[in-house]
Each structure stands twice: as structure tokens, then as C-alpha cells.
């Protein structure tokens, strides 16, 4: 495959998956500023810590992925968040309930495996210095 098309494909994947993930993370970010934090505790760290980790995985890290800053590392957080969502939080649910988490999980796995491509701030900064 043409390298330019691969780089464009990785950019589209990063932008689309991360932007859609931000829509989920924004609601959780709002919960951080609520008077009382009500959130699940799927891995036993407590609701407050769990909410902070989900905000990292669904809001902060996807912003880094969009920009192409430490993309593989940043993509790990939404990948792991969706892994927990699919197999722990929704583990007993029917497939239809966990399907969205699985789609996000595999999308971010591809980003972890393939990296950011050429159209990323890390690549631009690397050439500048």
C-alpha cells in the first residue's frame, strides 16, 4: 500500500476514534465536578479513582491521540478502559451491550500497533529539532 495513503488512514483512524471517544469522556469529566461522585468500581479501586482513570482513558488520552503526541502510549489508556468496560463492567451483558466498547478497544489497539503515522505533532517536532 502507498505510504501516504497509510499515513492518511492512520490520521483518519486517530481522529475519528478519539473524537468519538471524547463524546463519552466529556460526560465523565462533568461528573468529576459534581457535588457527589457516583460512579462504578469495576476493578476495586474505588469510585473516585475509577472515575479519574476513565476520564484519563476517555477524555485526556484521546486528545493526545488526536494530536499525535506520544500516540502509542496515549492510545493504551482508552484501549485498557474499553477492555475493562467490555469484559468487566459489561462482562455479563449480551454482546450488543458490549459491542461498542469492543469496537473502540480494537480501534485503539490498531493505533497502538501502527503508531501515529506521518501526520502527528511528534513527527513534526522531531523534524524541527
Notes on the structure:
By secondary structure, this protein is an all-alpha fold. It has one domain (3-128). It is built from 5 helices and no strands. The protein is globular. The model has no long low-confidence stretch (mean pLDDT 92).
Quick rundown:
With 129 residues, the protein is mainly α. It is built from five helices and no strands.
Number of strands: 0
Order of helices and strands: HHHHH
Mean pLDDT: 92
Strand-residue proportion = under 5%
Helices, by number, come to: 5
**SS content category:** mainly alpha
Give the fraction of residues assigned to helices.
Answer: over 70%
Report the major sheet: none
List the helices and strands and how they pair.
Elements: H1 3-32, H2 47-67, H3 71-89, H4 95-114, H5 121-128
Helix pairs in contact: 1-2, 1-4, 2-3, 3-4
Main attributes of the structure:
globular; mainly alpha; single chain; 129 residues
Amino acid at each position: 500500500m502507498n505510504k501516504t495513503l497509510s499515513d492518511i488512514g492512520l490520521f483518519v483512524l486517530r481522529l475519528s476514534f478519539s473524537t468519538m471517544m471524547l463524546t463519552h469522556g466529556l460526560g465523565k469529566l462533568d461528573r468529576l465536578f459534581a457535588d457527589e461522585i457516583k460512579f462504578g468500581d469495576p476493578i476495586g479501586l474505588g469510585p473516585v479513582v475509577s472515575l479519574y482513570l476513565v476520564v484519563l482513558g476517555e477524555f485526556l488520552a484521546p486528545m493526545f491521540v488526536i494530536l499525535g503526541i506520544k500516540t502509542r502510549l496515549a492510545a493504551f489508556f482508552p484501549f485498557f478502559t474499553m477492555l475493562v468496560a467490555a469484559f468487566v463492567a459489561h462482562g455479563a451483558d449480551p454482546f450488543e451491550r458490549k459491542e461498542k466498547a469492543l469496537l473502540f478497544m480494537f480501534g485503539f489497539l490498531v493505533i497502538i500497533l501502527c503508531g501515529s503515522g506521518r501526520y502527528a505533532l511528534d513527527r513534526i517536532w522531531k523534524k524541527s529539532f
